[in-house]
Amino acid sequence: QVQLVESGGGLVQAGGSLRLSCAASSIIFRIYDMGWYRQAPGKQRELVATITRVGSTNYADSVKGRFTISRDNAKNTVYLQMNSLKPEDTAVYYCKAAQEFRSLQAAGFWGQGTQVTVSS
Fold it and tell me: Which residues does the chain have with pLDDT short of 70?
């Protein structure tokens, strides 16, 4: 059964750091690229960062220089290290496994989401 499980969310003060984890089944890591999305209240879900099976990364302009996506293929886990957090980073963060991330509606597998709240 395909499964993605996120963890690591929480409450942090502005300027602080959090690391999100997304554990996946082994078949996911063999086949798919991985990405992190976020959705703030009343806003559309947006792509934050992606990483290919070979480790190429891409970031939204709003998080460049602050967030780092990485993957550990031995642990079937993708990470999102978030530094210098801002209140506007507050959202539910979702992990996705997919072959492409050009469209939110692209076929893939989603995790259940983890809440990140940044206080000012």
Answer: 1-2
